[in-house]
Structure formats: C-alpha cells, structure tokens
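Work Package 4 report. The design task specified in the project plan requires that, given a folded chain encoded as structure tokens, an amino acid be chosen for each position. We show below one input record used in the internal validation round.
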C-alpha cells in the first residue's frame, strides 16, 4: 500500500459484505499515505452475475432467490445509487465491471491512470505561498511559518534530524 500510486477499490455485487468493507479500505489507504485524498476508483465487479446480485442496480425491486420452499425475498439489496453515493463520498469515480467477461475492465484501469496523472499534475504545480526543500534543508517562504509544510514533510524532516535553517528573501 505504501508504494501504490492509485488503487481500485473492488467489491462484488454478489457480496454485500465486500461493499461494506470499502470505506475501511479507503480510510486505511489515506492513513498509510498520510493524505486527505488519493487516486482511487470504486469498482462494482461481477456485473455479469445479475441474477445473484446482492448489491442492486436500483432500489425498485426486492431480489427473489429460488429456494426449496416458497420464494425468499431478501432485504439486503444496495442500490446502484448507493454505490455512486459511496463513490461521491470517497471523492472518486464509480464503474461496474465483469472481470470474467472483460466488461469495463480496461476502462477501469484507464480511468485510474488518468486519476493518477491528474493527481500528480496537481501536486507538481508549485505553490506561491508554500515551502520547498533543498538537500534536506527546509526553507519556508517569507511570510509563512513551518505550519505550511505538510504533516509528511515535517515528519520526514524530524526523522532525518533536519531543522528549519533560515529565511529566503
């Protein structure tokens, strides 16, 4: 997780539990990366198994499963809207795929690469009021304080024993 540049968060539409674990995985990624956001795509997999869906396409139907006795109607369906809502909450895209039938698999990876490039492009734009680091020495810009450095930058400097060395101006 530490070296990944982006992540596909995949759940199976036939497993409600896998859907419910997505938020935990997302939080873990953000914690390990020490970021508020990171490139991820939410993937609803096994769209070819519509008849086994537990994470539903829409909320207008209860899912009926064949059983030895009378029909059993489950109430654990999750609408596709809930998948989209979760993606919106996580700040990422949502795609339904089938790895078995190769439905939207290439699109999922292409979208992830686009998200990674967009994320890296935003991060590479220098801030006019930020700070910079040269050869392990931290220099805050005039009028800023050490608080402008990210938590990760401060932690990295502390681990190397680097202290702010002065003002540039």
């Amino acid at each position: 997780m530490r070296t990944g540049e982006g992540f596909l968060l995949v759940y199976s539409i036939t497993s409600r539990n896998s859907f419910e674990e997505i938020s935990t995985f997302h939080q873990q990624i953000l914690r390990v990366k020490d970021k508020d956001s990171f490139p991820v795509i939410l993937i609803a997999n096994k769209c070819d198994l519509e008849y086994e869906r537990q994470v539903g396409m829409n909320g207008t139907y209860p899912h009926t499963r064949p059983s030895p006795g009378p029909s059993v109607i489950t109430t654990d369906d999750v609408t596709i809207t809930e998948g989209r809502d979760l993606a919106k909450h996580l700040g990422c895209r949502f795609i339904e795929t089938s790895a078995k039938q190769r439905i939207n698999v290439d699109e999922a990876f292409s979208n992830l690469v686009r998200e990674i490039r967009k994320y890296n492009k935003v991060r590479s734009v220098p801030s006019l009021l930020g700070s910079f680091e040269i050869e392990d020495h931290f220099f805050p810009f005039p009028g800023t304080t050490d608080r402008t450095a990210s938590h990760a930058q401060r932690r990295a400097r502390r681990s190397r024993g680097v202290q702010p060395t002065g003002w540039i101006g």
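The first strand starts at residue 7 and ends at 12. Validation will be extended to a larger panel in the next phase.
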